[in-house]
Amino acid sequence: MKVLILGSGGREHALAWAVARSERVTEVVCAPGNGGIAQVARCVPVNLKDLDAMARLAKAEQPALTIVGPELPLSLGIVDTLQQHGRRVFGPTQGAAMLETSKGFAKRFLQRHNIPTAKYAVCATTAELERAVEVFHPPIVVKADGLAAGKGVIICTSRDTALEAAHGLFTGTLLGEAERQVVIEEFLEGDEVSFLCLSDGKHVTPLLPAQDHKRIGEGDTGPNTGGMGVYTTDGLLEPAMREWIVRHIAEPTVRGMAEEDTPFVGVLYVGLMMTARGPQVLEFNARFGDPETQAILPRLETDLVDALEACIDGRLSETALRWSPGASVCVVASSAGYPGGYKTGLPISGLGAATRVAGVQVFHAGTAQAGSQLVTAGGRVLGVTAIAESLEEALRRAYQALAEIEFEGIYYRRDIGHRALKTLRR
Ligand code: AMP
Ligand code: GLY
Q1: Tens digit of pLDDT for each residue in 328-366?
Q2: By alpha-carbon position, which residue is closest to atom 5 of ligand 2?
Q3: Which residues line ligand 2 (CB under 6 A)?
Q4: How far is the CA of 271 from the centre of ligand 1 (A)?
Q5: pTM higher than 0.90 for the full model?
Q6: Cα radius of gyration (the chain)
Q7: How far is Cα 93 from Cα 72, in angstroms, rounded to an integer?
Q8: What's the number of CA atoms in the CB half-sphere (13 Å) around residue 409?
Q9: All domains of the chain, ordered by start, with CATH?
Q10: For ligand 1, is residue 192 a contact (CB within 6 Å)?
Q11: Rounded to whole angstroms, how far apart are CA atoms 152 and 37?
């Protein structure tokens, strides 16, 4: 069968790699793809903001299955559009994707269904905001309602700075676009966990939990990024805790969405804070995480295409996922200057030697082919993944591979997995 993947980052490279391993798959097409994806899939150009163009592409290619990677086309309703054209597509509809595309919707939904999350207020005017901040104790978390590529959350140490930040979101000075709603939230303390589940609209099957490192600097310092590295280990959450999260968070979410006539089919990414009073939902995403996917999929022993099709067909309860034991890590190599401005078009070398390290896969996030030379084409350039029997060994392999890779200004955090290592050494 032919599979079409929409997207162009490290997540889509990992998806294309996993799909290509399926015995049932004869061809993988990725739109628009990138320099690395071109090694496992045929890449074709498409504008991910243009629903008609994506529908035309699906008509021309006739894939048996389409997988949507990023949030942008989901937010525009690509799944609805392709379904209207009679196509089989993995991902939530525009209505179901609201769990990610509107934080106000997500918070109200969580409250309606008694799912644990931080105390909050959704404000549409400055007057509402001024009243709301009075009842929160600093630090106060201020969030843009809509998609903001990781830039929409501001943690404020006083009520005045919270008002200022919210004002910046309302007027558009902070994100470029004016927000109609702003969410004010209680500050939560604890370890963050990315808990991704497959959902067929009725049942959920959790993937391996992962821990992301969102800040650019070592020791979790500096500005937020799209994600600088991630790991999975068998010990990240105890089985009883995973079960609790499924029972009390993931299942009620999927049940609630079905009751409200927006059944959620796709990947439900639950961003959790593990607090002293238990796991609390920080956010939902309606898709595979990036770079979580690059660390999770290499440990999946089951056929990914079978699992995604089971979601579309409402057969997830009959599908069990098998994982390789041990650990995995994905360390992101970024361009100098990221998450601010950076140069592109810089030659990349050493990938051959890097991929010869045992257990290593290099997923491309922002690369392009310039003639015969692979060059940088984004802020996050590569995700170097390694799997092994232990986290220490996975890290050793990933950093050994990274030592082989060169491009001008290459930057990566050398402390990925530091929180888990601290616990292991205790
Ligand atoms: P979000 O997009 O809602 O996940 O927020 C991005 C990041 O902001 C999260 O990964 C957390 O690190 C941080 N964050 C969001 N909400 C809170 C909160 N209520 N308390 C503490 N940190 C938060
Ligand atoms: N790793 C964070 C995200 O995918 O949103």
Answers
A1: 999 999 999 999 999 999 999 999 999 999 999 999 999
A2: 289
A3: 212, 227, 285, 289-290, 292
A4: 8
A5: yes
A6: 21
A7: 12
A8: 18
A9: 2-90 (3.40.50.20), 125-180 (3.30.1490.20), 191-318 (3.30.470.20), 327-424 (3.90.600.10)
A10: yes
A11: 29
